[in-house]
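not sure who needs this but someone in the group chat was asking about ATPase from Allosphingosinicella humi so here u go. i didnt clean anything up, its just raw.
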Amino acid sequence: MSDYGIVMESGAVRFERLLSAPIERVWDYLTQSELRRKWFAGGEMELRPGGSVTLIFRNSELAPDDEEVPEKYRQYEGMVSKGEIVTVEPPRLLVFDWFEEEGPPNRVSWALEPRGEGTLITLTHSRLPSRAMMVNVSGGWHLHLDVLEDVLAQRPPRPFWARNAQFEQDYEDRIPADAEGASA
């Protein structure tokens, strides 16, 4: 299993990670705002089909204290995204639509499976409208899943912004130039 995401189909990428935490603990880190904030984005989720999702991004809080936010990302600090729960089956499946400023929503699916004392997490982000968006979200998910692994293992934070730039380049190189976004 590679930490790198793979293109599944037009407009979809998938990541698999084996996390060293029981499924219930991983579920809590997906669904509880204060725990999710430690690795991705805070904000409330109404855990029922049709429930609202609010994601508040403060990536500067995920970086070591001495790492400065690059200029091109400063505008996104405190950014709020909205979504809607599609499916919730605790503690195994969470699916939500992520609303974009334009066009139809993306879909994010988290499937959790117990594996010994750990959990296999499979993240699929679909309905991405373009290759550029596939590259962007792939780098972001890769980085945030790394942070989740570190948080669950109680490791100190690794550099965030330098790794973000590296993953952006990695996925620019990995995702085929002719990859297409999802059809409308």
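also The longest helix spans residues 131-152. if thats useful
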